[in-house]
């Protein structure tokens, strides 16, 4: 398995961790009865629960593009130490993004997000060039 695929698997596990963190915080905020309801009316989370939910959703978006980058690099046999470094940069940025977002660290969460985004774009470009 390429390094990029290993990092993709770890990024998916990070998504699982984020889902658990968000779910626990949401249950604490709204209570289990409301959390298990059919949600005919949307639940609007605030504070930590809301930030964890937004961080998780943001990772879903970033993970889509990162997955494409990993697939392109892997299937085109373009895996290099540089693309592996980009993959690690993405994962580290995403790990750091969760507490930065949860704590409301502006502008740092945006800077951290940009590192992961740039690493993904560079992976794609390196496969094409």
UniProtKB/TrEMBL annotation:
GO CC annotations, alphabetized: membrane
Cellular compartments annotated: Membrane
Membrane-spanning residues: 58-75, 82-102, 108-128
Primary location class: membrane
Keywords attached to this entry: Membrane, Transmembrane, Transmembrane helix
Pfam families: MAPEG
SUPFAM superfamilies for this protein: MAPEG domain-like
Name the record gives this protein: Inner membrane protein
Lineage: superkingdom: Bacteria
């Amino acid at each position: 398995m390429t390094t990029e695929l290993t990092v993709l698997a770890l990024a998916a596990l990070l998504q699982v961790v984020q889902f658990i963190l968000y779910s626990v915080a949401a249950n604490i905020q709204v209570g289990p009865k409301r959390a298990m309801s059919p949600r005919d009316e949307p639940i609007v989370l605030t504070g930590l629960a809301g930030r964890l939910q937004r961080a998780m959703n943001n990772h879903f978006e970033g993970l889509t593009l990162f997955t494409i980058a990993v697939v392109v690099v892997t299937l085109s046999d373009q895996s290099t130490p540089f693309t592996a470094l980009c993959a690690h940069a993405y994962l580290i940025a995403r790990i750091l993004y969760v507490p930065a977002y949860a704590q409301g660290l502006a502008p740092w969460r945006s800077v951290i997000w940009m590192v992961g985004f740039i690493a993904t774009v560079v992976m794609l470009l390196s496969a094409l060039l």
